[in-house]
Structure formats: structure tokens, C-alpha cells
Design a protein that fits this description.
By secondary structure, the chain is of the alpha+beta class. Strands 1-2-3-4-5-6-8-7 form an 8-stranded mixed sheet, sandwiched between helices. Strand 3 and strand 4 form a beta hairpin. Helix 2 crosses helix 4. The longest helix is centred in the middle third of the chain and has 16 residues. It starts with 6 loop residues before the first helix and ends in a 10-residue tail after the last helix. About 30% of the residues are buried.
Length: about 210
């Protein structure tokens, strides 16, 4: 489990770069702070993510990047399309047995399939890197686009919960989803990935 993983290993994982057909996923740096703030400073994004404040300023992005570098329980990737930052995706461990997928895209990049593509890469990275059996994810009930992304990635709906959203200053209903390692393995095998890779070897190779 993550509490048993040395901090140095977590930092090595955060140094990984993932490549998909259209996207590059890499760790954010302080040099990305302004771009992250520009993308995230939109209430339409904040109301669908529990932690993002609004307004979202450069200092918020700087604090976020520094927290990642300090060895917290989060692995995050800046999503780039044609060398341009378009959003974020990652996994946060709110509890040792509850790793959670999260993502957001700048509004101008919605509706092009980027969220699904980035989420799938992050999911592969998670199951190939950690030994956890389940990955969780959540979407506001008023956000069908995000629920659609999770379903395309193989997540199964479990129940409705109430979660607090910073920008709302209150709680809102969210759909709770989960993806098991066994379900991910089946999906990978359907996609033509050998089961041996699903069972332990890396099918998606990070580069440092």
C-alpha cells in the first residue's frame, strides 16, 4: 500500500512522463504555474472539482506544485496537447485504502475526448505502479460529461454520496464510481494487451 512506499519511490513516479496518441502527461513544475492558473481560473471547472478555489490565481498553482514536490500523497500530471498545457490528471490518496482519480480540463478543450484519453493513461499508470486493487472516482450528479468519461474508462457506479466543494462552501451530491484491478485487466486484454503485462509488467512505459 502507499503508506509502505518510500518517499523516494513516490518522487521517482512523479518524474514519469506518459505519452498517448495525442497527449503528453508530465509532472508540473513552477514554470507551469501561470498556465495552470489561466486554465483553472474558471468557475465552470471549480464547481465540478472539490478542491479548486475560485478565483484560482498563480499563487494557488505555485502552492499546488510545491506540495507535490514535498512528497505528499498525490501523483499529478500536467496534460499537454501539441506542447500546450490543457489540464491536469492524477491520483490522490485521501486514505491508505482509497486512491482516487481526479482530472480537469480548461474549458476551451472540452468535448474533444482529451479527458478520457488522459484518464486512461493515468489509470494504466496507477495499476502498473501500485499494488492497490481498486481505484475510486467521483462526479457531481449535475456533471454528465464527467460521468461519461468514467464509464468509458470502465468505472462502475456504486452509489450517490455527499461531498463538500470548496467553491460552493457546502456539500453537493456526487456519483461514486470504482474500478477494480480485475476489471481493468479485462479491459486491457480486450484492447489487445497481453495478460502478462496486465498482471505485472508495464504495458505503458513511462520515460524519465
Amino acid at each position: 500500500m502507499v503508506q509502505d512506499i518510500p518517499t523516494s519511490m513516490l518522487r521517482e513516479q512523479r518524474s514519469s512522463v506518459l505519452e498517448t496518441e495525442r497527449l503528453t502527461l508530465r509532472p508540473p513544475t513552477l514554470a507551469d504555474a501561470r498556465a495552470i492558473a489561466r486554465l483553472a481560473d474558471d468557475r465552470r471547472i471549480a464547481v465540478n472539482t472539490r478542491r479548486l478555489p475560485h478565483p484560482y490565481v498563480t499563487e494557488d498553482a505555485v502552492d499546488f506544485v510545491r506540495q507535490l514536490a514535498d512528497g505528499g500523497r498525490e501523483t499529478a500530471f500536467l496534460i499537454e496537447h501539441q506542447h500546450e498545457p490543457i489540464g491536469m490528471v492524477g491520483v490522490v490518496w485521501r486514505a491508505p485504502d482509497a486512491p482516487e482519480l481526479g482530472y480537469w480540463l480548461g474549458v476551451e478543450h472540452w468535448g474533444r475526448g482529451f479527458a478520457t484519453e488522459a484518464a486512461r493513461a493515468a489509470i494504466d499508470f496507477f495499476f502498473e505502479t501500485f499494488d492497490a486493487d481498486t481505484l475510486f472516482a467521483y462526479a457531481r450528479v449535475s456533471n454528465p460529461a464527467s460521468r461519461n468519461v468514467l464509464e468509458k474508462c470502465g468505472f462502475q457506479w456504486t452509489r450517490v454520496e455527499l461531498h463538500r466543494f470548496e467553491v460552493l462552501g457546502s456539500s453537493a451530491p456526487v456519483d461514486s464510481f470504482r474500478l477494480s484491478r480485475s476489471a481493468w485487466c479485462v479491459l486491457k486484454s480486450w484492447a489487445g494487451v497481453p495478460r502478462s503485462e496486465c498482471d505485472g509488467e508495464h504495458g505503458l512505459t513511462p520515460t524519465d
